[in-house]
Amino acid sequence: MAVLGAAALELFGAFARKPAAAAAKDGAAPSFPTPSYNWTKHHWAFGVDANQCTACLACVEACKLENGVPQDPHHFRTWVERYTYLDGEAAPLVDSLADPGDIEASNSRFVEPYRFDQRYQEKKVETAFFVPKLCNHCERPPCVEVCPVGATYRTEDGVVLIDQDYCIGCRYCVQACPYGSRTFNEVYGVADKCTWCYHRITKGLKPACVEACCHGARVFGDLNDPESDISQFLRDNRVEVLKPELGTHPSVYYVGIDDDVR
Question: Which residues contact 219 (CB under 8 A, 6 or more apart)?
Fold first, then answer.
Protein backbone atom coordinates (compact mmCIF):
# COMPACT_ATOMS: atom_id res chain seq x y z
CA MET A 1 0.00 0.00 0.00
CA ALA A 2 2.86 2.36 0.79
CA VAL A 3 4.36 1.75 -2.65
CA LEU A 4 0.98 2.31 -4.27
CA GLY A 5 0.49 5.53 -2.30
CA ALA A 6 3.91 6.82 -3.32
CA ALA A 7 3.18 6.02 -6.96
CA ALA A 8 -0.13 7.85 -6.76
CA LEU A 9 1.55 10.92 -5.25
CA GLU A 10 4.21 10.90 -7.94
CA LEU A 11 1.55 10.67 -10.66
CA PHE A 12 -0.40 13.53 -9.10
CA GLY A 13 2.76 15.61 -8.94
CA ALA A 14 3.40 15.05 -12.63
CA PHE A 15 -0.15 16.13 -13.46
CA ALA A 16 0.06 19.19 -11.21
CA ARG A 17 3.28 20.57 -12.70
CA LYS A 18 3.05 23.38 -15.20
CA PRO A 19 5.25 23.71 -18.30
CA ALA A 20 8.44 25.57 -17.51
CA ALA A 21 7.70 28.20 -20.16
CA ALA A 22 4.19 28.74 -18.81
CA ALA A 23 5.53 29.24 -15.29
CA ALA A 24 8.13 31.83 -16.35
CA LYS A 25 5.96 34.92 -16.13
CA ASP A 26 8.17 37.25 -14.13
CA GLY A 27 8.61 39.90 -16.82
CA ALA A 28 12.24 39.87 -17.85
CA ALA A 29 12.64 36.10 -17.57
CA PRO A 30 13.84 34.57 -20.83
CA SER A 31 11.30 32.33 -22.53
CA PHE A 32 11.31 29.19 -24.63
CA PRO A 33 12.87 28.52 -27.04
CA THR A 34 15.26 31.45 -27.59
CA PRO A 35 17.18 32.36 -24.40
CA SER A 36 17.63 36.06 -25.25
CA TYR A 37 13.99 36.52 -26.29
CA ASN A 38 11.68 38.48 -24.00
CA TRP A 39 8.07 37.65 -24.74
CA THR A 40 6.70 40.58 -22.73
CA LYS A 41 7.91 42.99 -25.43
CA HIS A 42 5.92 41.47 -28.30
CA HIS A 43 2.31 40.87 -29.31
CA TRP A 44 2.13 38.64 -32.37
CA ALA A 45 -0.79 38.43 -34.79
CA PHE A 46 -1.56 36.95 -38.21
CA GLY A 47 -3.42 38.21 -41.26
CA VAL A 48 -4.95 36.30 -44.17
CA ASP A 49 -6.00 37.95 -47.44
CA ALA A 50 -8.20 35.38 -49.16
CA ASN A 51 -8.33 37.64 -52.23
CA GLN A 52 -4.67 36.87 -52.84
CA CYS A 53 -4.67 33.11 -52.20
CA THR A 54 -4.29 31.02 -55.37
CA ALA A 55 -4.11 27.64 -53.59
CA CYS A 56 -0.58 26.99 -54.76
CA LEU A 57 -0.27 25.23 -51.37
CA ALA A 58 3.39 26.14 -50.95
CA CYS A 59 2.42 27.20 -47.43
CA VAL A 60 1.25 23.70 -46.55
CA GLU A 61 4.41 22.13 -47.94
CA ALA A 62 6.62 24.63 -46.10
CA CYS A 63 4.80 24.06 -42.81
CA LYS A 64 5.07 20.28 -42.99
CA LEU A 65 8.75 20.40 -43.85
CA GLU A 66 9.62 23.03 -41.25
CA ASN A 67 7.73 21.45 -38.38
CA GLY A 68 7.99 17.73 -39.09
CA VAL A 69 4.25 17.33 -39.66
CA PRO A 70 3.41 13.81 -40.91
CA GLN A 71 3.27 13.63 -44.71
CA ASP A 72 -0.27 12.30 -44.93
CA PRO A 73 -3.74 13.78 -45.56
CA HIS A 74 -4.80 13.66 -41.91
CA HIS A 75 -2.30 15.91 -40.14
CA PHE A 76 -1.96 19.64 -40.78
CA ARG A 77 -0.80 22.65 -38.86
CA THR A 78 -2.12 24.84 -41.66
CA TRP A 79 -4.32 23.99 -44.61
CA VAL A 80 -6.37 25.62 -47.37
CA GLU A 81 -10.11 25.26 -48.02
CA ARG A 82 -11.83 25.75 -51.37
CA TYR A 83 -15.22 27.50 -51.44
CA THR A 84 -17.13 26.98 -54.70
CA TYR A 85 -20.49 28.56 -55.53
CA LEU A 86 -22.22 26.83 -58.43
CA ASP A 87 -24.67 28.74 -60.58
CA GLY A 88 -28.07 28.85 -58.89
CA GLU A 89 -26.85 27.53 -55.55
CA ALA A 90 -26.98 29.73 -52.44
CA ALA A 91 -24.55 27.75 -50.30
CA PRO A 92 -20.96 26.95 -51.26
CA LEU A 93 -19.42 23.53 -51.70
CA VAL A 94 -16.45 23.33 -49.38
CA ASP A 95 -13.53 20.96 -49.62
CA SER A 96 -10.05 20.88 -48.16
CA LEU A 97 -6.83 18.96 -48.56
CA ALA A 98 -8.30 16.13 -46.49
CA ASP A 99 -11.16 15.62 -48.96
CA PRO A 100 -11.04 12.19 -50.65
CA GLY A 101 -11.00 13.70 -54.14
CA ASP A 102 -8.16 16.03 -53.27
CA ILE A 103 -6.22 13.21 -51.62
CA GLU A 104 -6.50 11.20 -54.82
CA ALA A 105 -5.36 14.20 -56.84
CA SER A 106 -2.27 14.30 -54.65
CA ASN A 107 -1.36 10.71 -55.51
CA SER A 108 -3.17 9.33 -52.44
CA ARG A 109 -0.04 9.40 -50.30
CA PHE A 110 0.15 13.18 -50.04
CA VAL A 111 3.80 13.35 -50.86
CA GLU A 112 4.16 16.15 -53.44
CA PRO A 113 2.68 18.11 -55.05
CA TYR A 114 -0.30 19.17 -52.94
CA ARG A 115 -3.29 19.99 -55.13
CA PHE A 116 -7.05 20.27 -55.45
CA ASP A 117 -8.90 18.05 -57.91
CA GLN A 118 -10.78 19.27 -60.99
CA ARG A 119 -14.29 18.18 -59.97
CA TYR A 120 -15.89 21.45 -61.04
CA GLN A 121 -14.38 21.79 -64.51
CA GLU A 122 -17.58 20.58 -66.21
CA LYS A 123 -19.89 22.66 -64.02
CA LYS A 124 -20.95 26.27 -64.20
CA VAL A 125 -19.16 28.03 -61.37
CA GLU A 126 -20.49 31.40 -60.28
CA THR A 127 -17.54 32.18 -58.04
CA ALA A 128 -14.85 30.42 -56.03
CA PHE A 129 -12.12 31.35 -53.62
CA PHE A 130 -9.59 29.77 -51.29
CA VAL A 131 -9.24 30.31 -47.56
CA PRO A 132 -6.04 29.49 -45.65
CA LYS A 133 -6.72 28.11 -42.17
CA LEU A 134 -4.53 27.66 -39.10
CA CYS A 135 -4.66 27.91 -35.33
CA ASN A 136 -6.29 31.21 -34.37
CA HIS A 137 -4.16 31.69 -31.22
CA CYS A 138 -7.17 32.96 -29.32
CA GLU A 139 -6.93 35.41 -26.45
CA ARG A 140 -9.43 33.17 -24.64
CA PRO A 141 -8.49 29.72 -25.97
CA PRO A 142 -10.92 26.90 -25.11
CA CYS A 143 -8.07 24.40 -25.56
CA VAL A 144 -6.20 25.93 -22.62
CA GLU A 145 -9.27 25.80 -20.41
CA VAL A 146 -9.86 22.07 -20.90
CA CYS A 147 -6.25 20.84 -20.66
CA PRO A 148 -6.07 18.92 -17.36
CA VAL A 149 -2.28 19.07 -16.99
CA GLY A 150 -1.31 22.55 -18.19
CA ALA A 151 0.36 21.23 -21.33
CA THR A 152 -1.51 23.75 -23.48
CA TYR A 153 -0.90 27.38 -22.54
CA ARG A 154 -0.91 30.92 -23.92
CA THR A 155 2.37 32.81 -23.82
CA GLU A 156 2.86 36.44 -22.83
CA ASP A 157 3.31 37.41 -26.50
CA GLY A 158 -0.03 35.92 -27.58
CA VAL A 159 0.95 32.50 -28.93
CA VAL A 160 -0.82 29.31 -27.86
CA LEU A 161 1.64 26.44 -27.49
CA ILE A 162 1.73 22.80 -26.39
CA ASP A 163 4.41 21.45 -24.10
CA GLN A 164 4.49 17.97 -25.57
CA ASP A 165 6.60 16.69 -22.68
CA TYR A 166 3.58 17.30 -20.46
CA CYS A 167 0.83 16.31 -22.90
CA ILE A 168 -0.84 13.06 -21.79
CA GLY A 169 -2.70 12.53 -25.07
CA CYS A 170 -6.21 12.91 -23.64
CA ARG A 171 -7.29 14.86 -26.76
CA TYR A 172 -9.58 17.18 -24.79
CA CYS A 173 -7.98 20.15 -26.56
CA VAL A 174 -8.59 18.58 -29.97
CA GLN A 175 -12.29 18.29 -29.16
CA ALA A 176 -12.51 21.75 -27.57
CA CYS A 177 -11.05 23.72 -30.48
CA PRO A 178 -14.00 25.23 -32.39
CA TYR A 179 -11.82 25.82 -35.46
CA GLY A 180 -10.61 22.26 -36.03
CA SER A 181 -7.04 23.49 -35.70
CA ARG A 182 -5.64 20.63 -33.65
CA THR A 183 -4.65 17.13 -34.63
CA PHE A 184 -3.33 14.13 -32.73
CA ASN A 185 0.05 12.65 -33.51
CA GLU A 186 -0.43 8.91 -33.11
CA VAL A 187 3.30 8.20 -33.34
CA TYR A 188 4.17 10.29 -30.27
CA GLY A 189 0.77 10.18 -28.57
CA VAL A 190 0.48 13.97 -28.23
CA ALA A 191 -1.65 16.81 -29.55
CA ASP A 192 -0.22 19.02 -32.30
CA LYS A 193 -1.06 22.39 -33.82
CA CYS A 194 0.25 25.51 -35.52
CA THR A 195 2.69 27.45 -33.34
CA TRP A 196 3.27 30.31 -35.80
CA CYS A 197 6.72 28.70 -36.01
CA TYR A 198 7.56 29.96 -32.54
CA HIS A 199 11.14 28.75 -32.89
CA ARG A 200 11.48 31.12 -35.86
CA ILE A 201 9.59 34.23 -34.77
CA THR A 202 11.50 34.42 -31.49
CA LYS A 203 14.64 34.75 -33.61
CA GLY A 204 13.23 37.54 -35.78
CA LEU A 205 12.16 35.27 -38.67
CA LYS A 206 8.73 34.88 -40.25
CA PRO A 207 6.64 31.72 -39.94
CA ALA A 208 7.51 29.23 -42.68
CA CYS A 209 4.09 29.52 -44.34
CA VAL A 210 4.37 33.31 -44.55
CA GLU A 211 7.84 33.12 -46.00
CA ALA A 212 6.71 30.56 -48.60
CA CYS A 213 3.65 32.55 -49.75
CA CYS A 214 4.61 34.44 -52.89
CA HIS A 215 1.19 36.09 -53.33
CA GLY A 216 0.98 38.07 -50.10
CA ALA A 217 -1.98 36.07 -48.80
CA ARG A 218 -0.34 35.53 -45.41
CA VAL A 219 0.84 38.38 -43.19
CA PHE A 220 2.52 38.20 -39.81
CA GLY A 221 4.03 40.62 -37.37
CA ASP A 222 4.20 42.34 -34.02
CA LEU A 223 1.24 44.51 -33.03
CA ASN A 224 3.54 46.42 -30.69
CA ASP A 225 5.35 47.70 -33.78
CA PRO A 226 3.11 50.18 -35.65
CA GLU A 227 5.19 49.70 -38.81
CA SER A 228 5.05 45.90 -38.83
CA ASP A 229 3.35 44.04 -41.68
CA ILE A 230 0.40 43.03 -39.51
CA SER A 231 -0.10 46.53 -38.11
CA GLN A 232 -0.24 47.95 -41.63
CA PHE A 233 -2.53 45.11 -42.73
CA LEU A 234 -5.01 45.96 -39.97
CA ARG A 235 -4.86 49.68 -40.77
CA ASP A 236 -5.39 49.20 -44.49
CA ASN A 237 -8.19 46.63 -44.43
CA ARG A 238 -11.57 45.98 -42.92
CA VAL A 239 -10.87 42.67 -41.24
CA GLU A 240 -12.93 40.01 -39.52
CA VAL A 241 -12.29 36.93 -37.44
CA LEU A 242 -13.79 33.45 -37.58
CA LYS A 243 -16.73 32.65 -35.28
CA PRO A 244 -16.67 35.94 -33.36
CA GLU A 245 -19.85 34.92 -31.53
CA LEU A 246 -17.86 32.39 -29.48
CA GLY A 247 -15.94 35.09 -27.64
CA THR A 248 -12.58 33.40 -28.13
CA HIS A 249 -11.04 36.58 -29.58
CA PRO A 250 -8.91 35.05 -32.36
CA SER A 251 -5.60 36.62 -33.34
CA VAL A 252 -5.91 35.67 -37.01
CA TYR A 253 -7.58 38.41 -39.07
CA TYR A 254 -9.22 37.77 -42.45
CA VAL A 255 -9.93 39.81 -45.54
CA GLY A 256 -11.92 38.57 -48.53
CA ILE A 257 -14.21 35.99 -46.87
CA ASP A 258 -17.97 35.87 -46.57
CA ASP A 259 -20.42 34.65 -43.91
CA ASP A 260 -20.18 31.08 -45.15
CA VAL A 261 -16.58 30.83 -44.03
CA ARG A 262 -16.46 29.42 -40.54
Answer: 46, 47, 48, 49, 210, 229, 230, 233
